[in-house]
Structures are given as structure tokens and as C-alpha cells.
């Protein structure tokens, strides 16, 4: 057995089998590339589910992390630290948010928003205690905690984990009139992904979010956009909401907020929602720690100062054009926005996973989602030449 075979066997023996990874054991990353333990190089077209938008091991984020790690890593929020205020200031300047609550994982940011809007519903909107409703969309993906999977429509994510958290109304994604009909006096919020990532990069019809925004405003419903995957440049804008020129009341970010170095997420709010949380009502030992803040500050800085968002817009169009030019009778659809892309295969093609295996053999890492879809989301630093190479490998695999 070589090293990677040994490591895989150990993982299989000792680890819970809650993932089914491609059998490639990675040991190093730089920019858009990662290397396995046998020295093979791959173009990473997943970016750790869009957490590594800035490219692997970005030298400036690395330097900030090392510097901060040698000075102060964790104080807890029992005391203050000299990084959090700067992160607040920089995030507020970048996004226009008025209140910010830092957490660690994406799911924690979602949970935090759910808690805050429920409380806001009772204390500000006047919804009777225990009656708050949150509208969510079918085929959503917001994370793995119990409350979140309670409103998942994916049987794999949900089945067997009950009893479930009540208070969610599930409607189809992309139909604003169904949304209008779902609002009632107890509706405190709508929680929606701007583009459904895990569902296979599903882009709603133009005008959908403009109408949702109008309906939320008219009915005093808090619009929460989960930009944990779509945010921070992935779709060619800082936030995907900008594609429709709207502003959410609450925006959730995570993943690329740390450039993949560290779990950092945040709830951004431009309404009174976060104001309802008082000392002792919410928190996290690691949330807002100085190491996380220093890493996030630099991750945001390189994202904006190094033109990554603009690159995602321009190169994303180029990549999608390249994918659309592939002649293949197993491709049903190619879609995407910025560098958030998907190739949906015909069901007769026998599933996307075998093609992800074949792409791995050619040096390109991508992830299948929902059986028939290959999702592509490279780091935002990808160049035209690298896209040309990727498209040619994909063409040889599915063409
Ligand atoms: C839209 C969205 N929300 C929430 C999450 C959960 O984030 P985490 O895995 O950091 O808990 C994800 C993760 O893929 C996501 O894509």
C-alpha cells in the first residue's frame, strides 16, 4: 500500500462515513492548484465549496494568520480584543451593514439569524409568542444542524433525525406569487439562497428577488439572504443580491470570509433585527476571536484589492461560454453566474460521479451534486489559460 492508500484505509476504518470523498489525498495547495501525496497536480474546481475563493494558501492571508497566531488567538467575548472592531468597521464599509454578529461555521450564522428574527418577530413585529413563521424554499441548503435540516426537503439530509423544529413554511424556489400567498401575520422572515448552490446552481428568474424584496417590505417580513456560498465574489459581485439591485435585511456570509484558512462566518444586518439580542442571549466561545478577525480582515482585503470579484465576472462568462461550446449528447444544460457553474447531464448518462472520477484522472477536481450535475467553482484567481485547459479536459471527458 502506498501512502494515500494507507491514509484512505485508516479514514475508512476510524472515521464516521458521513462523506463519500473522491479518493484523492491532498497535501499541498497554491492558488488554483492542489497536489496529492503522490505529487500529482490538480486544478481545483470546487474551492472547498467556495471557501477558497482567494486561492489556496494566499500568501497575505497566511502572513496575517501567522502574525496574529503568534500574538493572540482567543480571548472569548468575556473580554474585548483589538481585532474585532476593525473587522466590524471594514465589513460595514464594504457591505453597508449597520450591525454585525460574528460566528464560526455557516450553519451557526443561519441558526443565529433564525434566533434573532424570531425574537424580533415577538418583540418588534408583535407576533404572538411561539407562532413565528419563516418562509424557506424547497431544495434549499443552509447547513446541517437540527433546526436547519428540519426545513430541508432532501430526504438524505432530513430523514431519521426527528423530532424536527417547527415554524418553517416551505414553498417552491423562484415563484414570487407563491411567496406572496405564503405570507401571513405571523411571518417574521424569509430565508433564501440567491442562487441555490447545493441544489445544482439553480438561478431564479430575473425579477424574482426584486418582487420578493417588495413583498417583504410591504409585509414587514425580514429578508434573510444566505450568501454563504454565493457571497464574497463567487458570482462576479461582492454579494449576489447586487445582480438584482436589492438589499437584504440580513445577509449571511461564511466560507470565503476566511479564504479557507479558518472557520469564520457573520450575520450582517441593516435593520433592527440584531438589536434584539441582549447579553447572555446568544454567543460562541470562538466567534469573533482575534485570529478569526485578523484572517477575515486580510481575506476581505485581498478579495477586493486584487481584483478577484471583477475576475470572477469576466472569467466566469468566458468559462461558461467555453462550456456551452462543448458538443455533447449527454449535456442537458450548462448554467452559472460568475464562477459558480454547473453542467447538468442527461439522466441516461449514468450519473455525474463517474465523470468527476474521470476528470480527476485528467487533473481536474470537481464535485457531483444531486446525481446528474457536475458543479464547477474554481478559485476566483483562475486565468483564461487555465480555463482553456479546464474546458478542453471537460470536453474530452463528456464531449
Ligand atoms: C448556502 C449555504 N448555506 C449554509 C451552508 C453551511 O455552511 P457550513 O458548512 O460552514 O456550516 C452552506 C455550505 O455549503 C451553504 O452552501
TrEMBL record:
One annotated GO molecular function: identical protein binding
Signal peptide: none
Pathway annotation from the record: Amino-acid biosynthesis; L-proline biosynthesis; L-glutamate 5-semialdehyde from L-ornithine: step 1/1
Keywords, ordered alphabetically: Aminotransferase, Pyridoxal phosphate, Transferase
EC identifiers of the protein: 2.6.1.13
EC class of the enzyme, as a word: transferase
Names of the cofactor(s): pyridoxal 5'-phosphate
Keyword set includes Nucleotide-binding: no
Transmembrane segments: none
InterPro entries registered for this protein in UniProt: Aminotrans_3, Aminotrans_3_PPA_site, Class-III_PLP-dep_AT, Orn_aminotrans, PyrdxlP-dep_Trfase, PyrdxlP-dep_Trfase_major, PyrdxlP-dep_Trfase_small
Keyword Transferase: yes
Organism superkingdom: Bacteria
Coiled-coil blocks: none
One family name in Pfam for this protein: Aminotran_3
GO biological process: L-proline biosynthetic process
Family: Belongs to the class-III pyridoxal-phosphate-dependent aminotransferase family.
Name this polypeptide is given: ornithine aminotransferase
